[in-house]
Amino acid sequence: MKRVLRMILSFTMIIIIFGGLNAYIVWNVYIFLSHYSTTISAIGFSIVFSILVCSYLLGRWGKHNAAGRLLKVVGSYYLAFMEFLIILLPFADIAAWLLRRVGYAETFCIPIVGWTTVILLVILFSWGSYNAWSPILRTYGIPISKYGRGRGKLTIAVASDIHLGNIVGNRLGLYA
């Protein structure tokens, strides 16, 4: 019983943290987008963004068809964007706060900080995608003083951080 209660509490905390981080992201994105359009509804935007946030889970729970696969891919990309936004947005908010403190208007701060964040996000995402799609193969020779019975050569393979999943998949031919 204690273990189940601890598991429920842990799951609840994970959901609260995940929800809080995504609320922080949606708030920042909404402020940036609403600077350019006054017709964006906060509630409508939050609903659409919530579907984006949950798209990976929806794809996993759905049937294994094209729609489920699409939801998983969209969700996987969103999780990558989320990771980068969690890193970038606190710096962006501090920069915007500092600009406001020295006297710049909000109409100046939002586009400058927003577009700088978008550019950095695109750079980080492009760099991360390149690294995910371009595996590095390193070969090391390790001298061993003992020989195996009847073996002239021993090959050992180690793989790490290969990110096989919904986006990369096995298209890299790593199992060939």
Tell me how many strands there are.
Answer: 0
Q: Which spans of ≥5 residues are poorly predicted at pLDDT below 50?
A: 172-176
Q: So what's the overall shape?
A: extended
Q: Tell me the radius of gyration.
A: 23 Å
Strand percent estimate: under 5%
Quickly count the helices: 4
In N-to-C order, the SSE pattern is HHHH
Helical amount: 55-70%
How does the major sheet shape up?
none
Give the mean pLDDT.
85
Write a structural description.
With 176 residues, this protein is mostly helical. 68% of the residues lie in helices and 0% in strands. The chain has four helices and no strands. The longest helix has 36 residues, at 66-101. It is extended, with a radius of gyration of 23 Å. The chain starts with a helix and ends in a 43-residue tail after the last helix. Mean pLDDT is 85; it is low at 172-176.
Brief overview:
By secondary structure, the chain is mainly α. Helices cover 68% and strands 0% of the residues. Residues 172-176 have low confidence and may be disordered.
SSE topology sketch:
Elements lengths: L1 H35 L5 H20 L4 H36 L4 H28 L43
List keywords for this structure.
single chain, 176 residues, mainly alpha, 4 helices, extended, disordered C terminus
